[in-house]
Every structure is written in C-alpha cells, then in structure tokens.
Write a structure and sequence with these properties.
Layout (H helix, E strand, L loop, with lengths): L1 H21 L2 E2 L2 E9 L4 E4 L4 E4 L2 E2 L14 H12 L3 E5 L11 E6 L6 H7 L4 E2 L9 H13 L15 E4 L4 E4 L13 E4 L2 H6 L3 E2 L1 H5 L1
Parallel strand pairs: 4-7, 10-12
Antiparallel strand pairs: 1-2, 2-3, 2-6, 3-4, 5-8, 6-7, 9-10, 9-11
Helix pairs in contact: 3-4
Pfam families: SNase (PF00565)
InterPro entries: Ada-like_dom_sf, SNase_OB-fold_sf, Staphylococal_nuclease_OB-fold, Thermonucl_AS
Protein name: TNase-like domain-containing protein
Length: about 210
C-alpha cells in the first residue's frame, strides 16, 4: 500500500512539474513575462532585460524636454494591450544588442502573433531595416505597405514637403539633401526620392539626425 501511494505521489508530482514548465515553454520555446511597456517598440521583462523590437520604429513618447511624437501613446497602448503582464517568446537575428545595450528581438505571443509585425500592420510604427538584422524585412515591409494603402495610424494624415531626398541603398536610410550623411553616400549606393512616401513605400527609414533637426 505504501509503495502504491509513493508511486501515485511521484506521478502527481511529475504532472505538476509539467504544468509548471508549460507556463514557460510551448512547442519547445521559452517564454518570458513582460513587466513593463516603455513605448510602442520597447518592453522590460520580469528578469530585468530591456527589449527593443527589431526591424521597427514607433513614435517617441515624451521624455525630459522632448515632446511626444504624433501617435506615440496610441502605439504604446497597442503594445501594452498585446504584451503587458503576458508571456512572450523572443527570436534574435545576427546582432543581438543595440548600442544602448538593449536586446534586439522579434517578439511573439504564445498563439503565434508576431508583435513587431502587428504594430506595423496597425500603422503605429514604420519599418526600420538594420543590416544585418533583416530576417523579417520583407514581411514587415508588406505590412507597412498595407497600412499605408489603408491610411492607418501614422499614415492617415500624411503631409509632404517640397524637397529632394537622398537614400542609401546599403543602410536603407533616407536623408534631406542638406544632411551631412547624404553627402557621404557612395555613388553606387545613392537613390533619389522626391517624396518621403515613396521612400517609406520602398522600405527606407528616415535618418533620425536630419529629420529631428
């Protein structure tokens, strides 16, 4: 009898351990809980790691003396609805960290939802191709083109200015003609645009330096 009870004990214990592990693993993947959402493209995990979504850039929320960019808080809210206090899976590319020490990751929910792509598809971020991290570049670009076509989020009240833009085929960034970086692009990598819309449509992202200034 005692031996039978002991067997049942180990069976039940094993079952409980399986349930516990299932909270962190699904289909062979490890999942981590999100404890904080900074903005539309950055989260903090329960283990303390700060995760920057790879391949996208969401509008900046206000910080210090810098005002929030349009749609920044809508982007943050969408991100929060999807991941806050939930478990996510991280997928990495060639470069695993940015210059600020944040982990660069493609983030997935247990049901397979690709969070980076969902934010792009809803129009609350734009593609930020960053070679060599180009694993999902084409998927993200297709979602951005869809959002642009239906004028979602940041694309709905679009305004163009009369200017010429110079893009770098290698870095996938575009600049104002007067930007110092534009003058350093080698001839073989130069591409010209007369509209920002066209540059975005082809998957180029704006130079943060010249467009902020």
């Amino acid at each position: 009898m005692a031996r039978t009870l002991k067997t049942y004990y180990y069976v039940i214990l094993s079952f409980l351990l399986l349930i516990l592990c299932a909270g962190n693993y699904a289909y062979g993947y490890e999942f981590y809980e999100v404890k904080w959402v900074d903005d539309g493209d950055t989260i903090v995990l329960k283990d303390g790691r700060k995760i920057r979504y790879a391949g996208i850039n969401a509008p900046e929320v206000d910080h210090k003396e810098i005002k929030a960019e349009p749609y920044a808080y809508k982007s943050k809210e969408l991100n929060k609805e999807m991941v806050y206090l939930k478990k996510v899976r991280l997928e990495f590319d060639a470069e695993k960290n940015d210059r600020y020490g944040r982990a660069l990751a493609y983030v997935f929910l247990p049901d397979g939802t690709f969070v980076n792509n969902e934010i792009i598809n809803k129009g609350f971020a734009y593609c930020l191709p960053s070679p060599p991290n180009l694993k999902y570049e084409q998927l993200l670009l297709k979602s951005q083109q869809n959002a642009m076509s239906f004028k979602k989020g940041i694309w709905q009240n679009w305004e163009e200015s009369n200017s010429e833009y110079i893009a770098n085929k290698r870095s996938k960034r575009f600049h104002y003609k007067k930007c110092g970086f534009a003058n350093k692009i080698s001839k073989i990598n130069v591409k010209y645009f007369s509209k920002k819309w066209d540059a975005f449509w082809e998957g180029y992202a704006p130079c943060r330096k010249c467009f902020i200034e």
